[in-house]
Fold:
Amino acid sequence: MTHKTAKLILPGSRGNHEQTIELPILHGNLGPDVIDVTSLYTKTGYYTYDPGFMSTGSCSSEICYIDGDKGILLYRGYPIEKLVESYDFMDVTYLLLNSNLPDQQQKNEFVNAINFHTMLHEQVINFFQGFRRDAHPMAIMVGVVGALSSFYHDSLNIHDPIERSLASYRLIAKAPTIAAMAYKYSMGHPFIYPQNHLDYATNFLHMMFAVPTSDYKVNHVLAKAMDRIFILHADHEQNASTSTVRIAGSSGANPFACIAAGVASLWGPAHGGANEAVLNMLHKIGKCKNIPEYIQKAKNKDDPFLLMGFGHRVYKNYDPRAKIMRETCHEVLEALGIKNDPLLDLAIELERIALEDDYFIERKLYPNVDFYSGIIFKAMGIPTSMFTALFAVARTVGWVSHWNEMVADPRQKISRPRQLYTGFKVRRL
Ligand code: SDX
Structure:
């Protein structure tokens, strides 16, 4: 991949003479070239400095590509718009894990292999009893996913590809079961076991809303919408939670611990917690007439209020997922016979006003994937506190894919960034 080189002229400092070094420029298949600074410190005694990684590539990867300026999102080279049109979440899961879409036989075998692991060890159920009924579902997911490493000792050896695959399937299969159990626990309802004749999204909604006292038929339109939402949330390059999983995995930690770290990072309102924050924000704004006041608050640097569901580190154009989510919103509300949802009307008006405002235009702040998801989830009867847990269910596929890619890379080293030290110099006691 090495292509040209970058010349760096460094002034003499701390006894070093002025020096010029050449750094390799690496050329990917898509996107910006990168300057390989691996040897910078050994050659010059300088570190790079990039808090928040605004201009830093942490790894090479073949899984997901985003063009933020053009609003393009590819999973293993396939545009997200095409995948949601003709494939389901298990197709996309297979694609992210294996680089190619499955043929019918591969799909059937894969779905059966995942379904084999949808149940939890019965003793994990006791683990739930330790939580308060009002525990946030993400607190339960962090705890239970991490605890899986104490139940599945036959899939902890990260150097064994068979054990890596077993752990990957277990995590993907059990994520919806854990999320649905977190919801049932909060409701004081009995847990509903997975029904493996149902597809992934239908099975999840069945575990969420079925009760033992009567048959429950999942609305096909809602199941299709949930499946599409899972696809949209499955992966997104080196986002904060995926980077967390990679860094945790770089120490050799077991896969369950690494994915639990990803769940923890996703929880933040600047990341996956934004879908819950969007709905809370819309409730706070209440009416369209209050929108200008909140737009002003979002622009006021002295006010911590941000327009949740807006802005993105990478997308400086409309998030392609937000467009599909907005279409899905209309489909779900129609399927549920909800003629005019005041929250959706408010969201559409808020988006219209923001996108005409110079502050948002100059900063290229557009709706992101989280802006509409909460409205859909609410219409489906899913409580706000469960929104990020649903994001975590879908993103488990991306986290597991990146974890496998990193662990299988023979060049992989422990991630150990340095710093610009601004603390005390040596002091005498
Ligand atoms: C996800 O990384 C991923 O890929 C994430 C994700 C995924 O699939 O994994 O796409 C999922 O996390 C989507 C993002 C969800 N978060 C939100 O909706 C929360 C609201 N958005 C902001 O917190 C913010 O936009 C971020 C965190 C998403 C991005 O922050 P950046 O890239 O660090 O940008 P920034 O904070 O430097 O903002 C640049 C400017 C600043 O103003 P100035 O200092 O230039 O004057 O834009 C302003 C910010 O104040 N700004 C906002 C804003 N977002 C940025 N102002 C008002 N409302 C906002 N939402």
